[in-house]
Amino acid sequence: MMGAFGHLRKDMLRQPRRYFRPTPSGKGRMMSGDVEGLQAAVQRYFDLMYDSDPRHFERVFAPTAQLHGFREGRLTMWSAAQFKDVMASRPSPQALKAPREEAILLLDFAAPDQAVAKVRVRIGATVFVDCLTYHRADGEWRITNKAYNVERVIPS
Q1: CATH number, domain with residue 125
Q2: What's the total number of domains in the chain?
Q3: 41-85 per-position pLDDT tens digit
Q4: Which of 44, 27, 22 is nearest to 112 (CA)?
């Protein structure tokens, strides 16, 4: 079979995965990813990108999170703390009465407690496509890495 990146073997084709996870009783059960929990976490991300409320930042981003993307043609990296400061330093899209535009493009689980979300989100006049790596720790999904790209800028 030929794919976009050359020849694929049958065993390389993407198959749905199920994971064995021990329960507190010591018995195991089969489970797939926590889709509803991850969707709720992505919605919290969308809400934070719109309202920029710093009180919700720690529920969305892990303190060790890093953000990578291009700024003025150069690859940059911000820590979660730096990004929180950037958000706090500018008016929120909500305060500017900017329209919301957001969509989940992809959700993929690497393991029961690790997933990737590819999303589109508008912040002011800029529309981003973000690849968000999530980890679930202590029952909460948080972003541990964000790779962002400007998809388009909407003329004013």
Answers
A1: 3.10.450.50
A2: 1
A3: 999 999 999 999 999 999 999 999 999 999 889 999 999 999 999
A4: 22
Rounded to whole angstroms, the Cα distance separating 16 from 28 reads: 19
| Statement: residue 125 has pLDDT above 70 | yes
126: pLDDT confidence band, cut at 50, 70 and 90?
Answer: very high
Q: Are 66 and 80 in contact (CB under 8 A)?
A: yes
Task: Encode burial over 50-75: b for 16+ CB neighbours within 10 A, e otherwise.
Answer: bebeeeebeebbbeebbbebeeeeee
Cα gap 41→140, rounded to integer Å: 8
Residue 73 lies in a domain: yes
d(CA 50, CA 45): 9
**Residue 90 lies in domain:** 29-153
Average pLDDT score, the chain = 84
